[in-house]
Amino acid sequence: MVTLRAHHVTISVMPSPRHDALRQMFADRPQVAVEILRDLMGVDLPSTSLVRQEDRLFNTRPSDDIEPDLGIVLGPPQSPAHAIIVEIQQDKSKDPRQLARYAAAQWLMLRCDVTVLVVCPDRRAAAYYSQPIDTGLTGYRLQAYVLGPDDVPAITDPQEAAAHLELAVMSVMIHGRERKVIEAFATALVATGGDHAPKYSEYACSMSAPEVKDILEEIMASTEWPLHSRFAHQHFGRGHAVGHTAGSHETARRIVLYLLDARGIDVPQDVRARIDACTDVDLLMHWTVRASSVQSARDLFDDSDG
Fold this sequence. Notes:
Strand 4 and strand 5 form a beta hairpin. The N and C termini lie far apart (55 Å). Helix content is 46%, strand content 14%. By secondary structure, the chain is of the alpha+beta class.
């Protein structure tokens, strides 16, 4: 919650579900901020496997506390190599100079270089925060890195979505009206399995517009996958994987064939017949995982397959 004080009147502003979901996604895996800056935006960052969250409460004594959405540090605690401030901004309400204050406060605390990453789902906000920030202090002009809608690719390849789940979630948020984007996202969650499905499906739901949520709900409700979110409760009446419900064989077969087709892998008739004849959902899900990486359709099967 952000509290604004003016003329002795206190106004509390609650962050939106989209803001909270984006912030939590970066908090869950701080490495994603490094990947976006280094791989997507070409920022030269130190090479280190040590990436962690940092205390994000700064103090400008004798003034007040200032708190960005997230602070991330690269390198060991004793000698940090680089810091990243992540700020989620959906409109132009924040004074850009506040971003410069965050960077300066973090530099004073850690004595290492600081990069500011602003994630803006709105194009106007992205353009606003992309401008160089004149702080009023001679020699200190901040240029934030802004991830706007035009910087997020439309991911329609399930394999790419599985490799970059956070970016796939943001792709659904921005490009979700394109059905293939959601299909790739849902298929990627089936392929990755584990705890990814509930967490990332909730991220996508919280970030997306109502019409995109409708497409998400439609596709997720018709796909067998390990879902523990409200979709499972609504459509299946329980919060665990549905495994062997009616029609699950057909759905699992479609996912295997969809993954192979999306990767441009030819499916010979005998392979297709074997997939179509399978009624073992667990085996089909095993083939689904393999379908995301095999080089030929026949590589789906191994000696242990029935």
